[in-house]
């Protein structure tokens, strides 16, 4: 098997963990608040990224990537946080600023906010 096959498995295990846990993180954010979810997600991302970096076997790396997706609730609550911070009128610009504003602004799809 080629290295592309194993790289695909690592990437898909991360997304599989996200898909499995997305509904759960939405419920947790509604019941416990968004701040605990953000803090737990950031802590688990830091710890599991280090564990992934020190992985010596493919199965360890696969497990780290799966757990990283499973314990990452940021993608579920992130649009809500941006909407609350930026307001409804600047929501697109706020999401673009974090995800892909430099690329989107150059292409003309996201307006650059006025500095005034």
From TrEMBL:
It is a multi-pass membrane protein. Residues 1-116 form the Major facilitator superfamily (MFS) profile domain. Its main location: membrane. It comes from the Eukaryota. The chain crosses the membrane at residues 6-25, 37-54. Pfam families: MFS_1. The keyword DNA repair does not apply. Keywords: Membrane, Transmembrane, Transmembrane helix, Transport. InterPro entries: MFS, MFS_dom, MFS_trans_sf. GO terms for molecular function: transmembrane transporter activity. One of its GO terms (cellular component) is membrane. It is found in: Membrane. PANTHER family: MAJOR FACILITATOR SUPERFAMILY (MFS) PROFILE DOMAIN-CONTAINING PROTEIN, MAJOR FACILITATOR SUPERFAMILY DOMAIN-CONTAINING PROTEIN 10. This is Major facilitator superfamily (MFS) profile domain-containing protein.
């Amino acid at each position: 098997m080629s290295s592309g096959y194993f790289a695909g498995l690592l990437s898909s295990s991360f997304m599989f963990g996200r898909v499995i846990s997305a509904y759960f993180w939405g419920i947790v954010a509604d019941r416990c608040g968004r701040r605990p979810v953000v803090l737990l997600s950031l802590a688990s991302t830091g710890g599991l990224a280090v564990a992934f970096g020190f992985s010596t076997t493919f199965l360890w790396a696969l497990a780290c990537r799966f757990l990283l997706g499973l314990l990452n609730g940021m993608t579920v609550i992130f649009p809500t946080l941006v909407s609350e911070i930026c307001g409804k009128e600047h929501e697109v610009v706020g999401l673009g600023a974090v995800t892909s504003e430099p690329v989107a602004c150059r292409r003309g799809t996201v307006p650059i906010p006025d500095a005034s």
